[in-house]
Design goal:
Layout (H helix, E strand, L loop, with lengths): L5 E9 L2 E7 L6 E7 L4
Antiparallel strand pairs: 1-2, 2-3
C-alpha cells in the first residue's frame, strides 16, 4: 500500500458483498473493509 499499510487478507466474497483486512502503518492495527455489492 502506498502509505505503508499492508493487506492481511485479500478481497474475498461474502454473501452480498466482499471484504478484505488491512493493517494501518502506524500501529499495525487490523481493519476490516467491506464493499457492498458483488465482488469484483
Amino acid at each position: 500500500m502506498r502509505q505503508g499499510g499492508s493487506v492481511l487478507v485479500e478481497e474475498m466474497a461474502v454473501p452480498g458483498s466482499a471484504i478484505c483486512v488491512v493493517a494501518e502503518p502506524t500501529h499495525r492495527t487490523p481493519l476490516t473493509v467491506m464493499r457492498a455489492g458483488e465482488p469484483a
